[in-house]
Amino acid sequence: MPIPAEKVYDAEEVSGDDLSADEAEDEYGVQSPGEDEAGSSPAEPDRRPCPACGEMIPRTAIKCRYCGEILDPRHKAQKLRKRGASAEDEEMQPLDWLLCLVCSFIGCIVSIVYLTQNKPKATKMLITSICMIVFWNVLLCALGGILEHLDKAG
Fold first, then answer.
1. Between residues 30 and 135, which one has the greater pLDDT?
2. E strands present in the chain
3. Within 10 A of 130 (CB to CB), how many other CB atoms are there?
4. How far is Cα 152 from Cα 127, in angstroms, rounded to an integer?
5. What are the phi and psi torsion angles at 69 (to 5°)?
6. What does the angle CA 21 – CA 26 – CA 28 come to, to the nearest 5 degrees?
7. Residue 56: what are its φ and ψ, rounded to 5°?
8. pLDDT tens across 120-132, in order?
9. Which of 52, 48, 55, 93 is nearest to 76 (CA)?
10. Contact at 8 Å (CB) between 119 and 81?
């Protein structure tokens, strides 16, 4: 431990009542916290961690002030609509149905792309595409069995 060049004195406690507003600032211009700020602790019971960034936020918060994550599902849906989601993004259009029913593999790929874009119709499109893939495979197997049976009979 280095030896100080000059004598070090112990700090004196000064109550906040003894200081005026000008004296409440330290030599660097930083004000000491008021009574309402000094008593608050970071882990108050009316606070919870943000699911995205982990910072403590009020339980009733709609949006995290640190990372901007929207916590309320109703507000999140409104933001998606405002961000450019149109009526075409809400429900499947005839071209989407045609893609899912006839070209199921391509419809599956397109629906995965829509899922990454958070489009509401993506889940319905993916389920439809997967069901049609199963349907077409069953149909192909059945037709293959029928054709094989006809070749043996004829």
1. 135
2. 47-49, 56-58
3. 15
4. 38
5. -65, 130
6. 125
7. -75, 125
8. 888 899 999 999 9
9. 52
10. no
